[in-house]
Protein: alpha-1,2-Mannosidase
Organism: Panthera leo
Amino acid sequence: EHFRAVYEHAYPADELMPLTCRGRVRGQEPSRALTQWVVLNKTKEFEDAVRKVLRDVNLDNDVVVSVFETNIRVLGGLLGGHSLAIMLKEKGEYMQWYNDELLQMAKQLGYKLLPAFNTTSGLPYPRINLKFGIRKPEARTGTETDTCTACAGTLILEFAALSRFTGATIFEEYARKALDFLWEKRQRSSNLVGVTINIHTGDWVRKDSGVGAGIDSYYEYLLKAYVLLGDDSFLERFNTHYDAIMRYISQPPLLLDVHIHKPMLNARTWMDALLAFFPGLQVLKGDIRPAIETHEMLYQVIKKHNFLPEAFTTDFRVHWAQHPLRPEFAESTYFLYKATGDPYYLEVGKTLIENLNKYARVPCGFAAMKDVRTGSHEDRMDSFFLAEMFKYLYLLFADKEDIIFDIEDYIFTTEAHLLPLWLSTTNQSISKKNTTSEYTELDDSNFDWTCPNTQILFPNDPLYAQSIREPLKNVVDKSCPRGIIRVEESFRSGAKPPLRARDFMATNPEHLEILKKMGVSLIHLKDGRVQLVQHAIQAASSIDAEDGLRFMQEMIELSSQQQKEQQLPPRAVQIVSHPFFGRVVLTAGPAQFGLDLSKHKETRGFVASSKPYNGCSELTNPEAVMGKIALIQRGQCMFAEKARNIQNAGAIGGIVIDDNEGSSSDTAPLFQMAGDGKDTDDIKIPMLFLFSKEGSIILDAIREYEEVEVLLSDKAKDRGLTGILLYFTSWDSGEMRESEPSDIDYYYHPAYGRPHLLIYWRSLEGELSFSHYL
Ligand code: DMJ
């Protein structure tokens, strides 16, 4: 019925807008939901749908698309359609006219994606223009430097299938090269990967690591590439990562992001909905126990909020309230049911369907939830709802006889398209990289429940899964703060925590151990500060939980005291030269020494980088900074020393740029650059501090325009504009919503001939989904 609704109201647009009963168009891309017809045993409808795709689809549109999404949704859809078309043709009744047309279209699309791989690393650019490719001015893309790990690591199934179906080896080669590069770049001591990576240098841009947004399907594709292609190196890589995931990220029943360099430290206190696919992957791996535990925890979150919120905290409160009808939980439910045969999972499926009907169903389809708390809707129904959610829910309840082919002969792509396993023995001409030497034997205690098949794993013990779920029965409800009265009493009694806030050092392993016991997690922020969060549920005992609360109380008092001492009005660095003309104003921190900009006239001048860049010794390029505002990097010596060195070289001011990659005034409070404890009256020039994100705007501007003039002042000078107000609109939903400041990157692009700033807003999946021209 709902497939028909899509055709009736939306076709040939990409997706249905279920509230307004219209089609959502981004380009005439092929239907992304072909395979469903066959799975649902609607063979005739499948045949019609294929004909429509062949008749109406044009792949040569001037549209910038995500390489990742186009691969998993469009290329995967075409290949899945082709796989089932040839299966049906062979059966002799349907699709007799079919002559590999979908495959030809897939090949055409594959070639269109290849220019994205033109990087030294072999990692693809995140986006490509289907008509103009990349980097040409008309392409409007190709300036990106970063991509997400999943974006670069979720290609091998579709690309290898394309190569093996067609004999054109290039696709599989490119996908393998990207995977090889990611594997090389894994953090060697933790064996984890970060969320985003620079496609040119291979440096990790976001060094947090989990199994959800931005990484998820990289892991999925390593294991599935082994299944589809039979190449041991993929399994070895997967097992190495899996061991690291189970060691650091899996904190049953939670899966919590950590830092790749400091994997014992949590990077967040919330989880995202995308990680709900992980129990399903664990089933494929054969590690059933943690799969049951995490799935059970997620199910309780769903029962509490009706849907899995886009993100939820470790005490199961809503963190991001949207729910775009994501299918991951249904996917895991299906695989767990297959593995255990426990009818409990049918009940789970029933609840999912009831909630969808009750809260998301609208006359034209199912609408995404804008806010699971209020039940409000968004006018969108993503293609994954049909491609994945419907398929997994149908398959959960389907008997073997309901499906006209043997689903065990296929592997599900991340978008639930089906690729035949016989591809493993077809056109195997791709040379495999020998990684065996790098593979070290693992402690396989994590794999106790490993089993090589997805048949019913515990036929003789139907209560097995239940016995694992039982202790977790109330995990979500239990997480509400407990023992408040007792804690207050013990506060009154004046008891002290085992570690005093004023003594705490984030680098002391013993302190970290105590923190862990008290249920306090340490989160390293991008700007180098640390954030502490306590969850009583994670403490070793209720006494430890109380100690944790006392410690946090002390910490709050201590930091509010420190903040009072540090409060300062921000200063500004304004770029005034062509083509910015004062429109870019960067928030800056003042110094406790040098010219006080709040009392004196602002300082205006061209900028020049000092040599050495840290400004910690006499400058070797005084002629370059003379009469200019010197740029100096933070670190290695006192701020005052830097100021003296640039002043001696003749600079009229200085800007210190943070050496902490990714720091920004959006996310970190400004601070005052302190003196060196001595008399700093000799420093006469003004000094300002910029976090790295703001600093790189100036550095990028120098790279592109060479001559960059700035104004250092106590506030932005009015040049017709008092500042820049930005609204971020979701490409997908058209809705305005707040994005996290750290999700925003700034780029200058000279190719358009007029001054502007591109701002990319990363979606949850790490996709660069929006740009704005000023
Ligand atoms: C799907 O498009 C894919 O499963 C992808 O790997 C991540 N999640 C979305 C749906 O939520």
Summary: The longest strand covers residues 603-609. The radius of gyration is 28 Å.
